[in-house]
Amino acid sequence: MHNDLLVQVKGNQKELLTDCKLTIQCKKANDIYQTEEKGHGRIEKRETKIYKDTSLISDLIWQGLLVMIIVVNRIRMVYDTRQKEWKTSTETSYYVCNNKKYSAEEFSGIIRNHWSIENSNHYVKDVSMGEDSSKIKKKAGVMARVRSIVLNILRADNTDNINQVLYRNSVNFDRLYQYKFVFD
Hints:
The protein is of the alpha+beta class. The chain is 39% helix and 27% strand.
């Protein structure tokens, strides 16, 4: 069985990020896919580029794994109704992959779908579970996993309003027994 690796490269991976940026400056993209979405007072343009030349990756561990660098440029324009003007923001994200079989169009969809899942999880964990405002410093990762477990249980139960269910369960512990698949 073969698993594909698609990893976003961020600032905490300085050497790899530098190598990705160097690659897009020095090499030519092998495939480019562009999209534009309009609606709800905003325009979002995305450009996904694939670079199959990873020869500028200097880290020996990554060299053996990576066969492709993916770059996603996003330009988002939102209409400010108060000031009657468009506000523009840009973002560039870098990804690395171990499989050359995907096109820029396929990566565009894969990355977009991943972000929608990521955003919905972070939003719920932050707003409903107060994760960002948590004061827990020692073994914070354990509490993050507990939050994930709770979220998975509530989603498995097809909960519509997680915030409301969390409140109801905190007020009445007997409600926890309704999750029979947990206690069986």
